[in-house]
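HOLO CASE FILE
Compound: pyridoxal-5'-phosphate
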Amino acid sequence: MAPNLSPNPSNSLDAFAAEKLAGLEAAALRRRLAVTARGPEAAAERGGRRLVSFSCNDYLGLAHDPRVIAAASDALRRYGAGAGASRLVTGNSPPLAALEERLARHKGKEAALVFGSGYLANLGIAPALVGQGDLILIDDLGHSCLFAGARMSGALTLRFAHNDVAQLRALLAEQRGAARRALILTERVFSMDGDRAPLPEILALAGAYDAWTLVDDAHGLGVVEPGQRAPLEMGTLSKTLGSYGGYLCASRAVIDLLTSRARSLVYTTGLPPASAAAALKALEIVEAEPEHAARPLMLARRFTARLGLPEATSPIVPVLVGEAESALALSAALEARGFLVVAIRPPTVAPGTARLRVAFSAAHDAAQVDALAEALAELAPDSLRAA
Ligand SMILES: Cc1ncc(COP(=O)(O)O)c(C=O)c1O
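Model generated. Tokens follow.
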């Protein structure tokens, strides 16, 4: 049979993908997955080599804590590998119910709701609270999933410059009157910069303009002093708590509304019981061992002091490089010396601000931190001078 030479949509699909990829490659923006076996003590095995990882958000090393692993294994044996359906269908597993109670208590809130991930939480929260005719004001450096949730809500979404309270005030003064409801979205600790939102000022403004505030605490929980709480405190189980999943802590009324209206909760399978049990055990450890929880920030400060960088205010320290290609080269040079410090490039960060994002963990020891500082001082003196 003669081959069919008419245009084949799957070929045009591949041609499209190949062309897009070539563009990404040329701009040093193509991303690749690397098989990496993460072990205890911040170890990462990649390509047959053992590296010390400074790229992981497991800030307290709890993903490998034997107590966390035991809690997850026990739940796995008792309740199985998966939740079976949406939580509204098969119900809450006992570890999930216990975790929600504990999260609410930890945050000083009436109730909590666990989602499949932090990303899913942020996709569900804003659209359940605001829509057309409403206003969202979002920090320019907010995480991608905060923007995605805002977009899905249909509310008028305006950005304010990063941590710029004066601009936030001006936008509220200009826009609040025309909107039925207003929601402010920000982060306690910014994921790629490691700095912190001026929450007392933001919450005061929110009070003055009857706006609601959501704080994304993905990178703050357990490892920085929380300060003032917002009415909507969301976060993830995947970083300090070493597991997987997301959550919102709020008033009982808000949580009950979200239970009925957050589409990313209602129409998706519940979190596996073992993930909930792991996060619950990790949260107990965070509360019981404050000295352990203080270590990542202490190590981050040791690092910034050694390199003459501005003092760290969280376990995340950015080393700004500039161009994506240079950030990739610096990351590769560090990898050759045994450090995993992944380059962060646009669109995760603004063009011209590619960087190494150095994340510190209680699992690091001081000698590892000093060795990384020494390597950076040798490999990237210009980046450090510019800081
Ligand atoms: C600030 C922030 N919010 C939300 C998320 C999403 O959380 P998750 O990884 O649980 O989806 C992340 C990280 O991935 C984050 O950095």
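CASE NOTES: The chain has 15 helices and 14 strands. The chain has two domains: 33-60+293-386, 65-288.
CLOSED: yes
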